[in-house]
Design goal:
mainly beta, Immunoglobulin-like, 2 domains, 22 strands, 10% helix, 38% strand
Length: 283
């Protein structure tokens, strides 16, 4: 058995240690680390126990030029005579060409007078901005049910154009212009063979007429251009030219039957300049 003095000293030491611990100041609580938001499947982010929608795209390293350093020109081209819709007189290859009523697109206007197939462009000098590769539309001209589609095509200088015969009949593609070489291609349909197709380019800026000597009513226009600030009007006559550097410009409109007009327009960064053209009723 241990000495009673040993037990007495042991009890005294424990008492002193307990009293010393109780007299110490309270230790602040250890901060809890909160995890950062972590992307998870489905476009959501987890932060603690909360799910947040993070479906918006990440900021682009190269911001859109339209939002940052350019503006937009938009408007309508209108015919004061109201709606115009005439049918073509199909007198040949009715089985292929006359399957549908073919509309005369040389002047086509909706119930509000909106003109389809007018061409709007900036005709004054443009400094900087977009490249010719950003010209709107495709460089493809189809012959379908004996109609050139589209009726009006935009093509840059030296940009390749594909011309297709989608019909089960013969077509002859012939161009008429002042400054470009004549294109004259016979495209013969052959059963069980790929449809005829040719490619061409134009080197000089101008409006090129495209005809078919087999079907005299067939006509299209290729606007050969040097910059991308062009637009072809939609079925309601509306147009929009985007990515335009700020400044004052001359805006030009062309329509094959009604002629040409010019107006002045000023473009401001981040803004849309509204401008409309109106053609008088033909007598």
């Amino acid at each position: 058995m241990k000495n009673p003095i040993f037990w007495t000293l042991s009890l005294l030491c424990c008492a002193f240690a307990f009293q010393a611990q109780q007299s110490l100041p309270a230790r602040p609580a250890t901060p809890v680390s909160v995890p950062q938001a972590v992307p998870i499947c489905g476009g959501l982010a987890a932060t603690g126990n909360v799910l947040e929608n993070s479906s918006s795209p990440a900021p682009s390293s190269s911001p859109s030029p339209v939002a940052g350093d350019s503006g937009v020109i938009r408007g309508k081209v209108v015919y004061e005579g109201g709606e115009v819709r005439k049918l073509l007189n199909v007198i040949k290859d009715e089985r292929t060409c006359g399957a549908d009523d073919l509309v005369d697109e040389s002047l086509l206007a909706d119930a509000n007078g909106g003109i389809k197939w007018a061409v709007v462009s900036i005709s004054s000098e443009i400094k900087g901005g977009k490249s010719l590769d950003e010209l709107p539309g495709d460089r493809v001209l189809d012959q379908s049910t004996c109609v050139y589609r589209p009726h009006v095509l935009l093509a840059g200088v030296n940009q390749e154009i594909t011309i297709n015969n989608m019909d089960h009949t013969l077509h002859n593609v012939r161009t008429a212009s002042l400054m470009n070489s004549v294109v004259n291609k016979v495209q013969i349909y052959m059963p069980n063979m790929p449809h005829p197709s040719d490619k061409t380019t134009f080197k000089e800026p101008e409006v090129v007429n495209v005809l078919c000597d087999v079907h005299g009513w067939m006509k299209a226009y290729v606007h050969v251009v040097e910059h991308p600030y062009y637009a072809v009007t939609a079925a309601d006559g509306s147009f929009e030219i985007g990515g335009v550097p700020p400044g004052k410009y001359t805006l030009h409109v062309w329509q094959e039957k009604l002629g040409e007009q010019d107006q002045q327009v000023e473009v401001t960064v981040g803004q849309a300049a509204e401008i409309n053209f109106s053609y008088k009723t033909l007598k």
